[in-house]
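re: ur question from earlier - yeah i can do the single chain one, its not a big deal. heres the input i used so u can compare w yours
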Amino acid sequence: MAGYDYLLEEFAKIKANVANFRKVILHSHSTDSYDYARFIKKDGILLFETGKDKVIIEQDYIKNLEKIDLDMLAITDHMKCDFACRLSESRTSNKFCILPGMEISLQPSPPLNTFRLHIIVIFPEKYTIEQICRILPKEIPDEKQRTGTDIIKNIEISEFIKKVHNHCGLCIAAHIDTDRGVRKVFRQLGRDGIVSYDPNDSTTKEEEQRLSNEFKDWLLTAGFDAIEVAKDSDKEHYRWISEISGKTVSIPVLLTNDSHCTEDLKKENKITFMKMTSLCFEGLKQALQFPDTRIRFSSDLPKLPSPSILGLEIISSDEKGFFNNLKVAFSENLNCLIGPRGSGKSTIIESLRYIFGYNRTLNKIEHPGTDLANKVRGLQEATLTKSLIRVVYCGEDREYHILEAAYDPKQDYVTRVYTIDGKDREVHDVEKSGTYPLRLFGWNEIETLGREAPRQRELLDRLIPGIYEKLDQKNNLRAELGEKSKEIESLIKKIFSIMATNKGEIKRYKEYKTDFEKLNTKEVRELFTDFDNGKRKEAVLIKIKSNIDSLLNIFEKALNINLSGGVNEILSESSEKVKSWWNDIKVELKINDNQSNLNIEIDSIINHLKEFLSKLDLNINKIKEEIQLKENAIREKISEEAPKKIAAELRRSAEERLQRVIELRKKYLEYWEQFLILLKDWIKIADDINNLHGEISSKREKRKAEIESRLNKFSSKEIKITLGFIAGDDKKEFETFLKDSGILKQELHGKYKSNRWPEKISTAWNPIYLAKALLLREKNLLMDNIQKSNQEVLEDYASISERLINTLDPFGIDDDADIKTVDDQKLKNILKMAEIDWDDIEGILLNDRPVENLSPGQRSSAMLPLIALTENVPLVIDQPEDNLDNRLIGKMLVNILADLKEKRQIIVATHNPNIVVSGDAEQVIVLEALSNSKGKCYGSGSIDNKEIIDSVLEIMEGGKEAFLARRRRYNLAE
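and the output i got, formated as tokens:
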């Protein structure tokens, strides 16, 4: 089969316009700086003292620069920019961008004239020295006359920054140092810039607070495009957001590199990572406008979500498919499918549902009145008929896997998985394999989740490390308990079969035993001693013969087994190529030779057993003859004495009856011992389940506060999300069983319904715990589980416990047979009761009310954080904004997506521009409706891309004119 390399290549091309994090240094020095390479020595001599020509030094710098792993570098020499401009002109490319700039030494006008500030100015690529130097005042000499230690004096900082902006430049406040969390103030001047407040200084706390606030306001209003910090831990002290003059103001924080040689450029802890679509000055400006999502240091750089979907292909074979030939590539972060209604957004979502096999669980999203499952199938059939779907999936192994399915409305799952070179990976179930995880929520499904508490619990469990292993163990134990129950019921059938043999003859055991003992007098026993011994010998050999017969049966069946059995049926429907392969492999594996050797070995064993059996038969016949002789001797001895002859015959009949019942009873007791062993095993499993559920409950309860905190991270003041939790109290099914199954009876338990026995019992005990107590017949075990609330409650439960033990106890004794017995119906009821699952009550509360009782919008607002924060696997949502008002979308949903996209891949179909723009989407896929039944992909790219911005304006804002009209209507400044 052909490979899929072409798909990887095409998806890579489509992703060319996706924003990615780039390695950026915006403060570095070259050979133009007076202090360049001041720390680099050769043979103990400073580099500049070796007498190297400046041209050679520049060439060395360029050669070394080409070896550095960077995407963007701004060269900012002290008060100089000639070399930076020349290098930017000649070296900037699509893969490595050099921006020209300078490090400006500035002495502000009073009252800040005691400061000497260093400000980094950066300009677009290929800017000339003439363009840059226009920002300098006239008193500053030409570049050739500047020493690099020149200072611009008595200028208003905001005025200087405005001048730089007017000449298309950026201003960055350099060297703002920190000292690990001490409140920052601009208190004193350091050698290289502003430094932090000294906690040992005698300044009062009031003065410290005043200076801190002044510094903050100054930085936020001065007009800086960014500030630099010395190390990544300092950034937290400058990530302010303030309301100034009615505007929300913040400032981007970058890492300073301040390299004075190319070696310094290699320091990973001095690199700022900035997300850009285009590697250019404009890309840098756009990144600075979205610092929360586009600026990272190495310590907080998001790891690429693993796993993720690289891309999707849908090919239609005729006019029925909605997309003739669709290829869309996905970013590892936030992807938005946009387009007018009917353009195919939901078709893409539903194609993913189908190929990942989630049609099989459509019943889970059903709820009375929703009819979602039928709507999904209807949409799939209308848009995917005669379509081939392919997904390229990047798994945790970082390898690419191809999922492929031809849509078939009559089958919920047809997906096959291939390697990139086209080999079948033989994955029989994409979902169960665990290699291709995906969380998909179609239209309106999020709101539906909130209607069912068990599904809320399932989602909450995804936030608890290690709980799934415990839940799997519990499920395995429950399955084991079920199997053990089946074994018990099977054994009980055998026990009752024995009880029914010969019309219940086992119950005459005591009667037969008494009869025999009366007839078996000393005189009669002496008469039959040799005869009885012969019968015992015969019984021993007959038992051995029975064992040999069983072995013979096994080996004779094995002789009929052909190693190649059934192969011809398979080959009859196979190609000539497969038949040829079979002929070769048959010879290679020596199948015929092995078959012959096996038959010889089995024949040998059978012959040996038959020889053994012949010898055994001779011995049995010999003993039979001895028995016959003994019997003849007895008859001869008593032939003349009628009373003895009658006594002997009666004794013989009594012994036969008794022996028959003894054998039945012996078998019964064997089964009973097996039953007790199974019951002991059953109780051990029941204990393990109870103990394991205790661990699960403990895990859930311990993480409750932490989960609530995470869920409320993005909530507004109007929304408070909490978790309702009661350990082991989800027992509705158990309560229903007690009411309706018939295990409780009016004649045995009185008015149990009006007395609320089902509610009381299900509140006090879980079904397995109650079943165990009944099987052990321990009232105290039941009472141990009752919380000592008050005497009246204790007496009530004591009465219930005693009645349950007395009426539901399945065990008894048969005096006539001298055996223990079991009531099979009562036992079945107990075992059936134990099959009922129970769990903790755990659900989402919105403002202290269960979400299942709230409106669709309220349910969605509570469920969104839960869905978003649970895992790091790809998340696909169709219209997450549905049922949410715009206030919630802007305040909560956008923040959730912006934060979440750094931890997992998100694919959303949306009509809301806030999600695309404020979410800072890395990949926007624009879809277009060609007709009612056809659509295509118009294009894709980051929200930075002009064509994408135009599409967002047109599709989601009603066009640029409509957008501007609304701004004017709202009196918003442009």
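Residues 470-476+687-843 form one domain. not sure if urs matches, ping me
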